[in-house]
Amino acid sequence: MPATTLPQVPRWVPAPVTQEDIEWAELAVIDLSKTRTPEGRAEQAIIARDAMHNQGFFYVINHGLKKSQVDRLFDIGAVPFDQVDKDEKLRYEANIKATGEYLGYKLPQYWHISNGVKDRIEHYNLPRDVSRQEHPTALRPFLPEIQKFIEYTHSEIMYEVERLLAIGLELPENTFTDMHPWDETNHSFFRFMLYNPRTDDEETKTEGVWMKGHADHMTLTALWSQPVTALQIKDDEGNWRCIKHIDNALVINCGDTTEYLSGGYYKSAIHRVIKPPADQSGYRRLGMIYFQYMADQLLLKPLMESLVLQREGITKALDGDITQEAWRKGRVSRYGVTNLQKSTEDGVEYEIINGVKVKHYN
């Protein structure tokens, strides 16, 4: 059988890895190749459990995709930004406030950062099933590849991570995977995201913050590691630590939904994006992210059948019955476009969504 000829795409040339002295976050590494034996599976489940309990972040390696396959998707990821003109982008712009969904383009200058400065972040968002929407002409030849990549991430990588997290809570290992079906009730989505360099004046006014500190609102976020050092996690002592690049690794972080399902045992990690180090100044930062939701109708309630929760107790729960759909749409429609209130906590602002106090960190 002859090999399939893939459509040509220009190479995306990433920034060189920084050589500066950086205070890196110490994140656990989950090796999916070790989950093929009962002993290895038990070991990796403990590592995943402790990482989500203590930090809300970990790396995933040996996930089954070659570096060349991931690099190819980064090449494709530049297409919606570099090969689509502004008029066509406007035709595919997401109506975020009205729909509570990001699908399509979020163009720069949409979110307010601080002191009158708006973001220089552009992203193009695709639904879990890419056929659910029409896409820019230049991206259409690559949709089959993108679809396969999304399906593999959802079903082969994220499902395996969710099994480990279920084992960590002493639940049946299919608990979380059953809550994330591959059907019309699931609104997980895939994002190509581009951070463009900013002016010196904008950097001064925002103190170098490109995206405010926040917790993701979904169950899990999977970010494909890329070399521009800008992502930071806030540790228990209130210090911001940078996430180090690992070739062909994923960075997984816990979102609010998982925190509520686990009664606060798994912690939704506070993270932000800042100005890169000097030796990466001027480079664009291209990212690929998969945001995973559970089924829309499910409630954000602690899984009390967990023996861990029964022993440890509940430290975080929502008042009332809030569905994944209500939480998803409420958070998406209001992010970055509402007037935040000052908190008594230093450097913290907040807003109320579905009766919940949602914090943002400057």
From TrEMBL:
Signal peptide: none annotated. Gene3D superfamilies: B-lactam Antibiotic, Isopenicillin N Synthase, Chain (2.60.120.330). Residues 29-133 form the Non-haem dioxygenase N-terminal domain. It comes from the Eukaryota. This is Fe2OG dioxygenase domain-containing protein. Residues 192-288 form the Isopenicillin N synthase-like Fe(2+) 2OG dioxygenase domain.
